[in-house]
Every structure is written in C-alpha cells, then in structure tokens.
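Blackboard transcription, Thursday session:
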Amino acid sequence: MHLPEFKYLVPENKAALLLLLGEHQGAVELLSGGTDLINDLKARVKQPQYVVDISSLRELEGLSYEKGKGLTVGAATKLAALERSPVVKECYPALHEGIRVIGSPQIRAMGTIGGNSCNASPCADTPPPLIAYRATVRLASKRGTRELALEDFILGNRMTARQPDEILESFFVPQPWPGSACRFSIVGLREAAEIDLASVAICCALDAKGGAVKELRVVMGSVGPMPLRAVQTEAMLKGHVPTADLIDKAADCCAGEAKPIDDQRASAAYRHQAIRALFTRTFKEVLAALG
Amino acid sequence: MKQVLSLNINGHDRDVMVSHEDLLVDVLRDQLGLIGTKKGCGHGSCGTCTVIIDGEAVLSCLTLALSSQGKKITTIEGIEKDGALHPLQQSFIERGAVQCGFCTPGMIMSAAALLSHNKSPSIEEIKIGLSGNLCRCTGYVKIVDAVEVAAAKMRQLDAAQKGA
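(Written on the board underneath:)
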C-alpha cells in the first residue's frame, strides 16, 4: 500500500509551525506518531497537500508535575514515555490504565497523547480518564492561545474544536480532588492490540464525615460518537451514601445514558449491558481504593 | 519529487533517493536490500515490520523514510556481532521458536527492545513485550521460552564482562 503524493515539511520550531499552518490552512495534516495518520493516508481517507512532521519539536514534548496543582503534558509526548512515568502511575492511575491498554508496545512507542485526542476516535482510551480527571487542553495558533476542557474539545467521531491553523499544544490535568480515587476499565475482544467495545472512567471523592459522594465524574467511551459524561448518574449519586442498592440503580442509569451503535465489534444491546457491568465494577474498585 | 536522504542503519550511514511519501519498510527492503524486515499487514497490526529506532521497537510500515533522518535505525541484519548471532537469534534456533519464520525478525526486534529496557522480564512481561507481534503458526510458547533463555544468557554475559 503506497501513500498518495504530498509535500513533506519539517518546521524548525513551534513558531515556524504556526506560521506554516496559518499559510496553508486546510491543506495540512500534522504527523507525529503516525499510527493513525499513515493508515488514513493509505486508505485515502485523508489526502493533504502537505504533511507537516512535528515529531522532532521538543517544545511539544515532556511532562511536568506540581504537587497540589497538577500535571502538564506536551501533546507530542509519546504514550510509552507516559506509561513509564512514575508520576502518571502513582498520581493518575486511571490515565495510566488508559495508556497501558492502547494497541501494542510498538504503537505506544510511536503514538502520542495529543494524537489520541486529536484523532478523536470514539474508542480512544485516554480521553475518558482524562475527562474524568477534568483535563483541559491548550491550543495555539499565530493568533494566540486558548484553553478549553477536553470534553468541549472532542466534538464527535473524528471531530474536534481545533481550527485548521491551530495545534494542540498541551494538556493540563489538575490534581485529583482531595481524598478521591479514579479508575478506568474496558471491555474488549482480547487482551492485546484490541479496540474497546465499551469503557468507563470514574473519579470520586467521598465526604470525610458520613461517606456520602462529594465529587464524582463518570465518563463512558466507545458508546457514542465521543466520550460521554453520565451526568444523570453523577447527579443520582452525589450527596448520597453509595449503598449496594444505590450503586445498582446508578448502574442502570449509566447504561441508559450510553448511546451505542451496532458495529462489527458488538451490538448496541451488548454495549448497554457492558456499560452496566463496567460501571459497577469500576465504581466498586474506586470505593475499595478509598478504603 | 525525490531527494537524497542519509539514514543511519545498523551503525552505517547510507544515502538513498526517496520520495516524500516513501515508507521506511519499502526503503529498507527495496532500496537497501535489507529484506529481513518483512511487510505483513501494512497497517500496524502484525508487527513483522518491527525495527528499533533510537532504542524503541517501532513499525516501519507506519514510518515515513524522511521521518527517520538523524535517528539510529537497527534492523534484524544489524543485531549480530562480528559474525556471531545475537543471543536472541541463537536461542530462537535452539528452542525451535521458528516455524515458517515470517514473524521471526519482528519478534526478535521486539524482544531485543524489551531486553534493553528490562534485563530480567517475567513471563508476563515477555508476553506483553511481544503482544504487538503476531505468529500465525501459533508458536508463542517456544518464542516466549526462547526470549527467557536469551535473557538469562545475556545476564550471564553481562556478569562475565563485569567480572573480567
């Protein structure tokens, strides 16, 4: 399978990249890990005039963590680098799990955290935990920068709020709520190199007195055109002690909030069931982690 | 449009003429004659095109040749030393880990990258390390076994070198 013709460009730095994007608006595809783009080029899903390689721009790579504030991650940071990061593993275990289950070691060595959101596949593994952690993204163009919540960035199947002259520069993942725990679980057809048929990320903090749910985010993946917040489920649980009976009702509510389709991986009916089971399992794991 | 590209492959700088849209796997096989690297699925699922770039096992079927400029590329042809097989190659032969052989170069490159990050992987870690490489002769048991044996051999060699 050969690629369609394009012009390959390597900007020297971020400023040059933003100028290039301003100049060739709409005619450019950005190349970083290439695990999605090269396949889209092969399939002629994308036929850009220019492929702009940003994989050597160190300004877009790396992570820094400030205790109490949060984690800043450059969009072109490799998934494998984040998987090996002790900070990600210890402070953001649900994100670590989302990275661990992506593709294969080779895909994680090539692919980037930014690409996983920018590609905006409904079954991407990092957006649900990132949204559960209240992540925001920073977009840059020669017009300036702007920040928005990741849940407002991913707009649909392969659709984002990124304008043609913009790049996704970095993610900011705030310090998780005090006394909270966060977990992410998936259902796939096999262990390795699978594509999820449903996933659930849950972040939860309990009231120190009484144990009622104080803060909660429930995010579902692969059951809609984009990651979906289960807002009714969140509202049902907030302010209440999560008894077995309430968790059971919340699981039904969560399954009802999913908007899955039938496709080659699973039927919509099965996905509703999977979400119910995943919600229950993941919420119990969160409660167990909270002690 | 073609241009000259200088690639560092197996420790040598090699100049090739490439188009902007040429993939690394095609340049390795068709221009440089390094046909140990195989082309399987062509979309990053089977792992048989795995090479090591700057210490990481990556897929040469999803890598543009031009993106590889300035990086150190190692293929299956580059892991032997002075005519002696790499311990992984030797143990694949000894443990009967090769059947049709099509997946073998990719398996060995993934295993080599794994062992460079983790000298004593558990069986579970070996399985994860090889999870991006498919063998359709279903030879996984012997392949995992061969990697375990090679890891032990390499630890012994390391210890002997340190002692010497």
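Lecturer's comment: Residues 79 and 113 of chain A are 6 Å apart (CA to CA).
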